[in-house]
Specification:
Layout (H helix, E strand, L loop, with lengths): L1 E4 L2 E4 L4 H12 L6 H11 L6 H7 L1
Antiparallel strand pairs: 1-2
């Protein structure tokens, strides 16, 4: 589940271990999916955000 708190996107349903695994996958050239893809789009501005998050990011 994604949530916005204090201007930051939070991945409440994912552990730190899952986040590190996803970061490793991306560092090796893999593509993110789901919550992690939305997190990357939130942080970089590149990629697609779910419509509900677009206004909150602004």
């Amino acid at each position: 589940m994604l949530g916005v708190r204090e201007g930051a996107l939070r991945l409440d349903d994912h552990t730190d271990e899952e986040l590190r695994r996803e970061q490793t996958l991306r560092a090796m050239g893999g593509a993110s999916a789901g919550c992690f893809a939305a997190r990357e789009a939130w942080l970089t501005g590149a990629g697609r955000l779910p419509r509900a998050l677009v206004a909150q990011r602004r």
